[in-house]
Design brief:
mainly beta; globular; DUF2948 family protein; DUF2948
Amino acid sequence: MDLLRLVAFDPEDLAVISAHLQDSLLRVGDIAYLPRERRFAVQTRRYDWEAATPQRRLTCMHFENVTGVRVRGIDQTNKDAVLNLLAIAFEETNAPSGTATLIFAEGGAIQVDLECIEMQMKDTGPVWAAESRPSHEEQLQSAERL
């Protein structure tokens, strides 16, 4: 079993990690903001786009140098709610500072304010068969109507 481990120090690195995390599933209860440690961490069930057969892997990711976190459109009281991560975007504010935004299906988002990009993604364990391959057909149809 090959475990993927990636590190991001700039927007281009973060875009690569975002592609690997596309369609990851996570529970609201698996999100943690640790202000004293200046860390934001998430445990996901990553869809492995490179695998020959549909499968998911347990994967953790975290940002360092976090100065603040904002949540929009996510019920934080429902710890068992499942979110589908679509992408991680980065907007620079005052180089190298900026905001990383985790964008979820159904419109939810988490904005993570950073002094600089220092992010790590690491597969941590079990691999299991996925029920199906994620499809973006519905999202594409919505975009075409805009």
